[in-house]
Amino acid sequence: MISTDLSRYFDNAATTPLDPRVLQEMIPFFGVDFGNANSIHSFGRKALDAVELARKRVAALIGAEDPYQVLFTSGATESNNQVLRSFLRAAVSPFEHSAILEPARTLGHSTLENDGLIVLPPKDRPELVSLMSVNNEIGTIWQPNSLSGSATYIHSDMTQAVGKVPIDLAGISFASFSAHKFYGPKGVGGLYFAETPPSTWILGGEQEHGLRGGTLNVPGIVGMGAAAQIAIDEQNVNFAHAERLRAIVLEGLEGCTDWQINGGSSVSPYILSVSFLTLEGESLVVEMDRFGYAISSGAACSSHSMEPSHVLTALKIDENWRRGTVRISFGRLCTAESASGLSKSLRHAVEKTRTIY
Ligand code: PMP
Prior knowledge:
By secondary structure, the chain is α/β, with parallel strands linked by helices. The chain folds into 2 domains: 6-15 and 235-356, Aspartate Aminotransferase, domain 1 (Alpha-Beta Complex); 20-232, Aspartate Aminotransferase, domain 2 (3-Layer(aba) Sandwich), CATH 3.40.640.10. The protein has 9 helices and 12 strands. The strands form 3 sheets. The protein has a 7-stranded mixed β-sheet, with helices on both faces. Helix 2 runs parallel beside helix 5. The longest helix is centred in the middle third of the chain and has 36 residues, at 218-253. The protein is globular. The protein starts with 19 loop residues before the first helix and ends with a helix. Bound molecules: 4'-deoxy-4'-aminopyridoxal-5'-phosphate.
């Protein structure tokens, strides 16, 4: 069944629906306001003004002192790659998204050790350490600046934090994020730098002060700015809404047997990771889809891989629990009613799947 009921969409960590107000602001830039932001005539200037307004809004959302510190990219994957390519010796946490782990591996960077959810500082003082602010699978919140002093530069992948939870840039040298995680368009994101700019990776033009070549994606950037402004205004209400929905789902699951919550005590209210002993997360996702609910068994970027989650593996979670993990991620279109319906359906799916196994 294809669900058209957006209140049943509980996969907001994978992506959020585009806010219609954002779309309205973007539309002229697909049409009459088509200018190239780097042209000096009036068509270009109109596009540039819109880009610079978006830069101010994004800077305000993350708390950057100067809009100049925000570069527009195609998303967090690109931002992460650009930062990791700027250093010869970097170390990344084992809990990172594949958009950090993959480039880190290719570039020969090292992986930090962990003691449960605690990420241990590196022993050999690399140039850069990278620790995400909110984990995309289990919602754990880390304070990346707790690693200040163990490297010259600190990078944080803030993709699951920006627009959702308060951002603290103190001690952060670089931060990455994507617009589509906070009701903006896909394919556009940002890279914040405190003082030292990243090295230029995409060569070919003088855009973004020479730090990223290529004609600017004006409609996308405008959309990201509009989404940032809405997040500034509505973030607190959305946060409280997510907290409430999370509590409703947890309460509804109380009657289940053999289940556990992952992520520790400091978690984003937007992400709920639960494991059901001896079950398969994928079977639950399929079963829930039949009820019209969208949840996931982990990160969308690795949902076609049958490899166990590297996050749960780093936490040494027993395989019998690890395999039965699902992620429920809340958004502002989810309602108290749909959250309660989700937990009922999930309990039903768990019981049904357990009788099959
Ligand atoms: N980092 C994290 C923590 C994410 O959740 C995601 C998106 N799943 C990314 C990076 C990559 O973002 P994008 O696909 O928009 O480049």
